[in-house]
Each structure stands twice: as C-alpha cells, then as structure tokens.
Amino acid sequence: MADINIQRKKSAPSPWLLVLLAAVLVAVAAYFFLRSDPADEPAPPVAASDTLGAAAAVDQAARRETVDGIPQGDTTQDAATAAGSFETAASLATQAASDPAAPDYARNGLQKLTGVLVSLTDRDDLRTPATTEQRDNLTSATARLGEPNTSLRPGFVAAAGLIRAMQQKAYPELENEANTLVSLAGQLSGRSATAPEQQQNQQFLTQAAAAVRVLSEPAQR
C-alpha cells in the first residue's frame, strides 16, 4: 500500500499584525515628510533694549572715530570735552559751595573743573601750544578718577597749571589768582579724610570757580 505524504497547512499571518506593520510604516513616512526644517523656523525675537544698546554702541564708536569724515584724537580727551559741554562756571561754583565733607565732594568738583577747563581750551583766543599741553596733562591726570583709591592731587595740580596757562595767554588781571591756585594745588594731599583736607579742597575749588568765571568771559582787549 502506497504511503500518502500528508503536509500540514501553513497558518496565514494574523491580519492585526499586518495592520500594525502598516501603521508603523505610515507613521515613519509621515515623520520624515511632515517634520519642519530647522532653517524654516523663525528666529527668536530680539529684545528692544538689546537693539537700542547695540545701536548706541555703534553710534558712539562712529562718533569717536570720525566726525564729518575727520578722524578724532585721544578718546580720553574726547570724553572730557563731552563732559565739558555740560559743565559751566555756575555748576562748578555750586559744587564748590556745597558741603566739603560730603562723599566725593572733591572728586566731583575736580571732574566739573576738568570738564569746563577742557571746553575752554577749544576757544580760538585760548588755543596755544602751552594750553594744549596743559590740557593734555589734565585729561591724563583725571582719566582714572572713577577708580577707587585714585589720588586727586595730580588732577588739582594739572588744573591749576591749565588755568595759569590760559591766564598768561589772555587774562593778565588774573595773574595773582592763578599763581595762588598753583600754590594751593601743591599743598593739597589729594584726599578728604580729615576736616583740614576738606577745607583745603573747598578753598581750592572756590578760587578755581572764581577764576573760571572770569575765563568764561571774553578777554579784555
């Protein structure tokens, strides 16, 4: 009797498995086709303060480098000149008459004095090699007034020297006052820790304000 080869019928794959596989393929395809390109994403907004700050910095640098296409000089001198445009003999006198024991009385007074003196050196009748040299000495001596423990004495001495240079150029009637200021500046310690030092600072600034008031007026011809 012949043998009959009986093979078992293979079971068909579950339809749910096919459905699951199809769903996975669709999800993968959707991910690659629908995901956003990073290059298309909008840039984060820039804060208005950052924009204004950057614009101010660029404008300040441009002003420092050129004005109407003319290269400018030392930035320390430029800063002092800018400060001088806001200082007057009256503002200096007001500072001199304030409380000499107040914090930064002498420092503020020297800054105001520097500003107005540097501004005066721009006048044609006061611009000489001597006043230019004394102006440069003053701006150099006061360039670091904002730093702690900086002595004020070099600034006072340089300011007195610039006042005397201006006096010698166009104000002969101020000779005694200018010489007195040079002498007073040489006696200052550059500090204001004690009452005598505070009084000396006020005396110098008061007399300097009086001299600046005269220098601010046209010279007598």
Describe the protein in words.
With 221 residues, the chain is mostly helical. It has a domain at 71-215. The chain has nine helices and two strands, in the order H-H-E-E-H-H-H-H-H-H-H. It has helices at 15-34, 48-65, 75-84, 89-96, 105-120, 129-141, 153-170, 175-187, 195-215; strands spanning 66-67, 70-71. A two-stranded antiparallel ribbon has the order 1-2. The radius of gyration is 38 Å and the shape is elongated. Mean pLDDT is 78; it is low at 46-85.
Summarize the structure.
Helix content is 62%, strand content 2%. It is mainly alpha-helical. It has a two-stranded antiparallel sheet with strand order 1-2.
Any chance you could write out the topology, listing elements then pairs?
Blueprint: H1 15-34, H2 48-65, E1 66-67, E2 70-71, H3 75-84, H4 89-96, H5 105-120, H6 129-141, H7 153-170, H8 175-187, H9 195-215
Antiparallel strand pairs: 1-2
> Which geometry do the CA atoms define?
elongated
Low-confidence stretches: 46-85
Mean pLDDT: 78
Number of strands: 2
- DSSP helix fraction: 55-70%
Structural category: mainly alpha
Number of helices: 9
How are the strands of the biggest sheet laid out side by side? Answer: 1-2
Q: What is the strand content?
A: under 5%
- Radius of gyration from the alpha-carbon trace, in angstroms: 38 Å
Distance between the termini: 152 Å
